[in-house]
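To whoever is on call:

I kicked off a structure prediction for a single chain this morning and the downstream step that reads the tokens threw a length-mismatch warning. I double-checked the sequence; it's 347 residues and nothing unusual in it as far as I can see. Pasting both halves so you can look.
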Amino acid sequence: MGNPGKFTWISFRSASLILDVAGPSSAVDASSLSVKATLRNIGDETLKALLNDLRTVLSKAKTNTFIIFSESGTPRFTGIKAKYVPSMAAALNKGKIVRDLAGVYNFTLTGEGAYNFEAGNLFNYIDASGALKTVEASTNTHRFKIAGKLAAGNSYTPNLSKRAVSFTGCSSTQQSQISAAATASNTYVSKVNSYLAGISSGTTRYTTWFGAFTTSRYNTVVSHYKNIGTNATATNYDCTACKSEPGIDYDSTFAYVNPPSPGKIYLCGAFWSAPNTGTDSRAGTIVHENSHFTVNGGTDDHVYGQSSAKSLAKSNPAQALITRTTMSISLRITLHSLEFNMIRDYV
């Protein structure tokens, strides 16, 4: 690892944090790419509950926590997207971590050369009252060079036969729970599709979760739900891989997927303790994960929880649908936590 680059400053009342992210000092190939992140508290308040959130550079999970771009564009993200409970995430004990990015980004289309990258700038913590809080850090741009091998393999494989529900490493009880959740997931999506087909302007339910009504925004929502369709009952569900997935806390994670590989959902501990339907349910989790697949729109999560999703829809409806990747080079749609809330009206 080489030049540490500039510092990112965060203000935490009387606590101050410095996030130092360093890329490799010489050119590397995609299979050797790693980034070193160091977080130091230089304030006078001890922070004992800064959470190891999957959306931050401090997590070792293969999540999309960087904005990477060059003159040729942005590399394709090939890691995982997960649904989890931020307030249950394990408290971070270490302020230094090396993020292995092999298999997380594919540089085949953008090619060799210099890339700028920025670290994700949101951090969760528990305040003195025990409430979950999020702080936004200012960010700086750092740089590394890619040469040689432009992509590294990973262990995520798609389910090529999308005909019926199938299982990997699931007990008979788990299979029954999954089947019930998959059926309920299809019902959710079907009823939302029917609802969307019946509106031509903003309704209270629509604007609550998606903000002001525009034709293009509406068409985006419609297309994503149509793409999801009955995928829930044409998916392979893996009940064991989550236990050994790097950086994933099994108990606080519901599920994760590899977006380029549709048809396979990896289930984790929080999935099994959730109700079958309703908010943060097994059925809702399946809708959430299916929305992440690239073929269904490749959604991202900006916020978690009902109050946060409502606030975002009011303050920034464009972001409630679209998330920036690499300096507006490309756009992706995001539905946030849709199980989320809008669809539970139909249960």
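Update from on-call: the warning came from a stale cache, not from the record. Cleared it. Sanity check on the structure: DSSP finds six helices and 18 strands in the chain.
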